[in-house]
Write a structure and sequence with these properties.
The protein contains no helices and 16 strands. The chain is mainly beta.
């Protein structure tokens, strides 16, 4: 894990971090003497395990080269508590699961629609096409995915801070926003 935030985090800012080169493998158990063998390990850039996150912001972070040799995909950000009031933007998520909000606050139903929505608009998901949606962590594929109740549109078509090659792409609902505006010459 890169950064772990626990307890009430109201008003906390997690920003301007570069988290890279994290690896999860069965043989990387940090404390083998505790006899706590879960049969797997996880890799997460930022883990928010807080009962309250009102006014908490995760911004201007770069999370990449986070890998896992296990069946659990690596995650840039994992919400293990209440994600309501949490704002996530603009970050660069360059791993299999950009944001996982399957957080267990749904009374055990495992229905992600019962989890509070996490506001993750205006992030770079490693693709001009934005993230893909996955039902579970293990369903993630070659593009950064979102899992659970995550609002990610609009998303950034390029990494924040760089010009990149936009090729006129816009996200989701905004694709045709300026379609008929003309050139301003009358």
């Amino acid at each position: 894990m890169g950064i772990v935030v626990q307890h009430a985090t109201d008003g906390v800012d997690i920003n301007n971090n570069e988290i890279r080169d994290l690896v999860a493998a069965y043989d990387t158990d940090s404390d083998r003497s505790d006899n706590g063998d879960f049969g797997f390990t996880v890799t997460q850039g930022i883990n928010v395990a807080s009962p309250s996150t009102e006014g908490t912001t995760i911004s201007h972070n770069v999370i990449g080269e986070v890998t896992s040799e296990e069946t659990i995909q690596p995650e840039a950000v994992k919400i293990d508590g209440d994600g309501s009031g949490l704002t996530v933007r603009p970050n660069q998520f360059l791993v299999a699961v950009g944001l996982n909000n399957r957080n267990g606050t749904d009374g055990g139903s495992r229905d992600p629609s019962d989890d509070p929505a996490v506001d993750a608009k205006n992030n770079w998901w490693g693709s001009a096409d934005g993230p893909e949606e996955a039902a579970f962590n293990q369903d993630a594929d070659d593009r950064s995915d979102v899992v659970g109740n995550v609002t990610y549109d609009p998303f950034l078509p390029n990494p924040p801070g760089g010009n990149g090659n936009r090729k006129g792409k816009r996200s989701g609902k905004d694709k045709n926003k300026n379609k008929d505006k003309g050139n301003g010459n009358g």
